[in-house]
Amino acid sequence: MKRALAFVWWLAVSQAAQERATVFQSGPFEVYSVSSDRTAREVLNKLEQFRHAFGTLLGKPDAQSIWPIRIRVVRPARSLPASPELVFERDHWESTVSSAGSMSGPFLYQLGAIFLEATAGPMPEWVDRGLLALFSTLEVDGTRIILGAPPAEAQRDRDWARMHMLAVHPDYSGKLRVLLANLQRGADPEPSFWNAFEKSRSEMERQVDAYLAAGKFETVLVSGKPINPERDFQGKPAPLAKSEGKSAVDLLEAGDLAAAAKANPRWAEPVFRAALKETTIDKRLAGIRKAVALEPRNPRYREALAKAIEENKLAMEEQKRQRQLEAQRELDRLKDEALRRIRNAELRANEGKPRVDESKVVPWWDGPQPSARVEGVLQRVDCMSGMARLMLSVPGGKPISLLVRSPADVVIQGGGVASLSCGVQKPPRRVAIHYFPKPDARMGTAGEAAVIEFK
């Protein structure tokens, strides 16, 4: 509560200050002023030009912050630090500055880190450090942005020099975005350097050594955002206190995740916590993906996403296995049904017939007699919609397939109906089959069985 009151204390020092308090807003920035509106507009212009230049290099010109960034603009005073810093106060970032020029060094370094956290995909730490150091000396004059002013000599390390060379040197400056885009997509540095500069990383590192040793660091003009501060930044009276109710942090702490997510749609934590409460893996995975999209650099979210993806993969594999089992059960049911029909047809065909001598074939009808006979081992019976295909291996000859087109018309001798079952025969049985030579190319059979004699 004390921190919240601290922000409005400077507005409530006197009645005159309250009457003059003005707020200028653009993007994630809220700039408050009780002194000079012109200074406040200059401050907001520098903030927006920084956001535009930094975001453009990352491929995201409209770079965002998870939390509002509130800047107090006051008259120069001895109590103010020479280089202000941004401080996180529960549900917003805040700082106090006296002019646009006072926002440099640590302030701009922190500002870049805020945009990295909310906008950029994960990149190697040496890239982050180099970018933030490079932009910490950014200079803005209206819509003119000057990039590359060197920091103090003690701060000119390899990470800064590497990024300075890639951003300022004419051979590389137009290609730096390609490198950063590849790295944000998760590509390894080696192919990323080659794709951007057609040089290996080791070759580029040798050039960085020479560049840093030479000590000649130029600056470059960067395209600014077409802003007219007087026209585009319209101030309005600043409230002495926030009156819109509970903040997103308050709502999260109270357990109202939906309201917290609505209060700050850019904050991933309520979305992430809600995702973990989902009972189905697909909904949990969707929620975690949304959280990662909001805060792509949060390692806790990324770790949870990898775990959820693995769980989803296992769940899909289990679903596939269950579908296969169900399909096999259905196939077995169809085979059993076909076999049942064949057996019923055999029983009906043999019903009332006198017992015959199994040593010879007895003609079973008055029509044409089967003219072909084969002896072999019955290996497999394929049951197919009321028909069956018999697969025989013949000693000293080629295997032969015979069709049972109508089970009711086939006589089975010697083995009983139980000896004829769908699928691979266990064990295979020796048989003699009398058949009509009627080749069927579609079925792959040499004829139609009339009498099956088990040996």
Largest sheet: 6 strands, mixed
| Separation of the first and last Cα atoms | 98 Å
Main-sheet strand order equals: 4-5-3-2-1-9
Number of strands: 15
Unreliable stretches, pLDDT < 50, 5 or more residues? 1-16
- What is the typical, i.e. mean, pLDDT? 88
User: What fraction strand?
Assistant: 15-25%
Structural class: alpha+beta
Q: Sum up the overall morphology in one term.
A: elongated
CA radius of gyration is 41 Å
H-E string:
HHEEHEEEHHEEHHHHEHEHHHHHEEEEEE
Integer tally of domains: 3
**Helicity, as a percent range:** 40-55%
Number of helices: 15
Task: Detail the topology: elements first, then pairings.
Elements (H helix, E strand, L loop, with lengths): L1 H8 L5 H6 L1 E5 L2 E5 L3 H21 L11 E5 L13 E2 L4 E5 L8 H14 L5 H11 L3 E3 L2 E4 L10 H11 L7 H9 L4 H9 L3 H14 L5 E3 L6 H4 L3 E2 L10 H6 L3 H7 L5 H8 L4 H14 L4 H52 L21 E13 L2 E7 L6 E5 L6 E3 L9 E14 L10 E8 L1
Parallel strand pairs: 2-3, 3-5, 12-15, 13-15
Antiparallel strand pairs: 1-2, 1-9, 4-5, 6-7, 7-8, 10-11, 10-14, 11-12, 14-15
Question: Can you give a write-up of this model?
Answer:
By secondary structure, the protein is of the alpha+beta class. It is built from 15 helices and 15 strands. It has a six-stranded mixed β-sheet with strand order 4-5-3-2-1-9, covered by helices on one side. A five-stranded mixed beta barrel has the order 10-11-12-15-14. Helix 7 (176-184) packs antiparallel against helix 8 (189-197). The radius of gyration is 41 Å and the shape is elongated.
